[in-house]
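Students often ask why we bother predicting the structure of a whole assembly rather than each chain alone. The short answer is interfaces. A chain on its own may look different once its partners are present, and contacts between molecules only exist in the joint model. In this exercise we take two input lines together and write out one structure for the complete complex. Read the inputs first and try to guess which parts will touch.
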Amino acid sequence: MEIIKTEKLTKYYGKARGILDLDLTVAPGEFFGFIGPNGAGKSTTIRTLLGLITPTSGSARIFGKDITKERESILQDTGYLPSETSFYPGMKVKDILKLSADLRKRNCGAEAKSLCERLELDVSRKAEELSFGNRKKAAIVCALQHRPKLLVLDEPTSGLDPLMQKEFFDILRERNREGATILLSSHVLSEIQRNCTRAAIIRDGRIIACSSVEDLSKTNAKRITVHGSVSLEHLSGIRDRKDSENSLSFLYSGDMNGLLRALSAGQVGDLTVTEPDLEEVFLHYYEKDGEKV
Amino acid sequence: MTLVRHELKQGRASFLIWTAAIGCLLAICIFLFPEMKGEMDSVNELFASMGSFTQAFGMDRLNFGTLIGFYAVECGNVLGLGGAFYGALCAVGILSKEEKDKTAEFLLTHPVSRKRVMTEKLVAVWLQITAMNIVVYAISVGTVAAVGEAIPWKEIGLLHFAYYLLQIELAGICFGISAFLRRGSAGVGLGIAAMLYFLNLIANIADAAEFLKYITPFGYCEGADIVSNGRLDGVMVAVGAVIGTGGILIAYRKYTRKDIR
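Now the answer. The structure tokens for the assembled complex follow.
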């Protein structure tokens, strides 16, 4: 049974498009990435799954339960980290954590203490006195302290310093190893590439690609960096060319023999051929109207 | 009852300020009575000769020389307006503040149904209004005893009960409005309370507008009617109960389907 399964999930805000015919499946124990530019529909998808907004049509199930009919039961085993964190005025962090645990009718004291220690969060301070990063940490503890089976994370690392980001992903990987399923929505593609097993790319409200991160990154194009002087004018299949004083770099998807001939005719001091990173692939999903590079 | 406790804590400062303000104003009014009692002949004459103003506040049907006559007009206005403002403020922001302060994402992603959220918030509003009225009633009765006047238990009790019902009805209306709002609720609540207050003044002045008494909850809080009849107008209270309940039902209907942005 899938942890998340949506079928033609659609949301319109009046006449404005939110998401369209979204089909998404997340299997148990997956660390699943969700990628897309601003306004693509990532947050709408997440908010629909969590019951904050009602779908216009289509259906979605989490843990096999209907998101509109069994919302409370789903949320009992779900932890959500929003991209922007707001808490009630005048409340200390420990009161917020207690409120969150009480709303779940669970005693999460020990787990909360452990998480706060790992994230170096001072629970005696009022939420409004905290920096953006520390508010984020409080939200992370709220999302994790009840040890949910599903974690939905929306831009989780914004505001966290690199050390805390590392600690945070260490915790997530531990939870993932223990069986938790993680849906990670992020603009930071290196995070997705490092941590996720599968990912979906959403654009204009539609899923335009969904596969393993390895497959998404796989492409017939290579990043070629040449130090020296070569003429590439007659070659086709060159994109994203960056010239500097004594080197040039480009994505190449043309005939490899043609490239080798062009290189051998020139003066090459050094040559590197690498796979493009997910960032480059991702950009092309947008530039090329969804076609894979 | 987690949310009830949470809302009571969140509303504590507002509760203390409004209760202290209304209680103090009532106590000051009552402390003024013994001094004014000696000058009542001239005061009665003055108040009885202010035309529409006299009618608007029911001063043509009350004797200012008695504590209850004085109390019904002076303290009635303080408790009526102050209580209405507090009741409206309590209720009108109770749902909308979650979206305005962006805490809805925190609250509504916990395993709590929206119906339960609304019910607990409504209970918190009722508890705050009830507690405010108990404290204010105790201050009033205590102050009347302190100035050495006999306590007209029945009339004072009826007046306070009527204003309590008014606040509950107004809270019901504002609760309904709160379900629709996403921001800026305080002005709406205060505006509605003030509008309903003035509707009653208009109904008192113009015979043609008397039907307004059935719309505004201030209609069944008319001190002159309560003191002279020794009871509240059952029809007006029933209409008020229907309006207040309607507000609550509309809130449930709207908020359980509302998209939280």
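Check your guess against this: The mean pLDDT of chain A is 90.
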